[in-house]
Sequence to fold (932 residues):
Amino acid sequence: MSMLERQTVLAHAYVALRPAPGKARPDSITLENIRQCHASEDMVEKAAQTLEREGFKVTGRSPLGLSIAGPSELVAKVFGTPLVRTAYHPIEGPPARMRKLQAVTHFEPQAELVVPEHLKDLVESARMAPKIIFYGTADAPALPYHHLDVPEDVARLIDAHAAHDHGFTGTGVRLCVIDSGFHPHEWYAAHGFAITLLGTNTPDDDWYGHGTGITTNAMAVAPGAQFFGVKLMDISATAAFQLAQTASPNVITCSWGVSPYDPNLRAEILNAIAGGATVCFAVGNGGPVGWPGSMPEVVSVGGVYIDEHGTMQASSYASSGAVVPPGSPPGTPAQQFPHVSGLTGMAPMGIYIAIPTQDGSSCDSTFYAGGAAFPNGDQTPSGADGWLAASGTSSACPQVAGVAALILQANPAFTPAQVRTALEQCCRDVTAGASASGQAAGPGTDPATGVGLVSGFIAVNPVDVWCKDSADDNGCVPDTYDWPWTSPDVWVRAADDHGPDVNYAPEHGQANYVTVRVRNRGRLPAATVNVRLYWADPNLAITWPAAWQTSGLLVGGVPGNLRTVGPVAAGGEIETEAFEWWPPDPLALSHPDTDYGHACLLVRLECAQDPIVHEGDLAGDNNIAMRNIHIVDVLPDTLYTYEIGVGAIKGLEGKAVLTIDRTGAPADVTIKLKPLTFRAPGSTKFPAKAVEAVRRIDNITAKVHTEPLKLVRGARQRIGVTIKASPKACAGDKYVVRVNQTVGGRLTGHVTLVARVVDKAPYVGDRGTKVVHKWGCAEIAKIGAAKKVVLRTMNTAKALRYHPCPNCKP
Amino acid sequence: METVQAYAALRSASGRSRFDPGAPVTTANVREFHADPETRATAARILTALGFTVTGSGPLGVSFSGPADLVERIFRVTLACPPPASLSIPDELAPVVERVSLSGEVTFWDPTTRRGSVADKE
Fold:
């Protein structure tokens, strides 16, 4: 192929041939009549020769037509239509994923192609070839067990998303992967990644199937790095290291070991490190620590598992152990490996991260395991589908290498020793679980995980102030755990007494006291943190900043919403002095009848060392947290019904699903879900049906999901969740019921209902007659269980439009 | 025919041997064991002339591969398990190569823990 041909992008077209004499093209082509369209062999050949004489390449032929390619100018000249050159991405995906994907040239005709006179006896019509879009296999298959996807989940749990948000993606860093090969899987293009392959040993053939997948871990963590690949097949490990050196890498990652110990490889590794490369080696899986993963000079990488609740523990699949490093001088004591850890699944196979591989590779079939169920097989569609769910320290190592790349972007002059120190300093402590070797994790540096699980964000930003979004939240962003609006770090009390969180309901008409707990995941103290408190009407969108209110908030007796704390120690936490809060009149809220006692408290942590980058985004920025509160008092053997509004949200289409979790309430407490009437937007009436019929669910016994509810644009429906207190309930009992609403899979609403049992109440209202009674009034006994409402003050009763009982005159 | 991977450690420009047990290689001193570029080129040229494929080279050594019978003939060794720590060096290589040894077996860290080589594939 000449240089000119290589550089010329050809335009592709198709010419439909006329049917052979005696045949006529049917109006509609079917399998049965398609032969009626066939041209004769002579016609096909004559047309091909004619077009080749014109200067076209015939790239395909059949009795129906010819595929041809030629310079766009030639197409324009022969078919009488100028072409417009465009570029597009051949694999579908969201724009963010397309940023590095190489575009494909496409030629659009400005008008229909015209068949020239000298071809009309052979050619019926001509058209430019359409764009080609690849589908499907760029996305991991759905798997029915807890697992991670690349790049999103790995980037989140390695804390790399936050680093990316602050501009650290590994830009300017050369990262080399030495592994089994690098199949050009669709995943790479779909996510905008490219890898420069070194060597002549067919590095794009990954028949073994290991390298194609594990490389995606490094890409997830350091997407801005420049990636190189060396195939460690048909060449030795020393050769692979020498080949890697030709790319002058800053980071080299190796998810393999060598046996027996090879002094030459050790020397080559040391030479690479002396040349400025940070070399990461996986410590191994299951058995004794591997070598070179037990070289003191490399970054030795072990494994940590994070479950679906965000809890970390040492991986039972990753190796660890103390050995005298081979090649050490006599008398060298045993050293403990690994140094640090990345994400790794659990025994028996480490099935954890869905990664691409070469179709039908050895790993593809090994992890498919004949269709065995998790955890003995990965349950991907087949052993030849180009996907596997795997991990091991093989995945952990490139993740750590990715963090090394983030460190080097932030500190380009760092030596490998400094990078190693930074990796150790950024780790999150892992205190639970044991490695495959049986060594236990524990506070501080431990034998199972080393210093702990690396954090991409702490590696480049030594301070990370945050509040938990939920009990499960571990600070990684975006937060994906359930109940993200239940921050345990924001709580209300009746008195300014620094007491604990007791699910106190803020009371209108009096001072309430809000405390905020500020945490620091960083490795350095946060000097000063400005804590700003807000509240929002829960029935309105809580869009920053319009919906975030400060009225009724006082600090030191004067209006204000700012408390300053600091320093917050590395790994420490500190509580603010209380904010004084006078909640709004329930009547001022959008739905006072149903949302009395309901409030949204919002917190922003402002810290110069860790600025907010996603304003108003609870999940996307851990400097922001919210506590959604709805607490009602109930008497034993009475009902309380909370009404939930279900509705379409602008810009978010799909079906709504409600999830009701009553696991926080005792078994003898009855929980039901039932449809209520319909309310049109902006109306006090309920004529519009907003969603499909809601199926009543009686006796909810655990966590249940409703059938998907088709939404009507702009309308809402009220759905009731009824809690019936047990007759045996005692004062002080609390029933916690949580409700999530998702639309199209995205969380759009959430409330934690806390029904607090009281054995007496200052006032009791009749929801039906709207009459309020003093405690002890004989009329209370006549109120039905479903209509008996506890009212704490007459102010509340009046606000909710109750009338005083004429007998007890409250 | 099985292909064998091997490594030729070059003689250093300083004259120091990295196989001296009293002077272990470290990241601080590894450059003292670098060979001259001419030494590296000469070794690669001789290995190629002997029929081997040079798969990689650096200032410390030359990685190469070749058929097992060629390795046995040139380095006067019978390949067995476990392989010898070092091989006899032919006269033409001796001025530039200090030691020749077979490369270790590579294990990718996955449940199969099998050696990654084309020989295994076949």
Residues 114-122 of chain B have pLDDT under 50 and may be disordered.
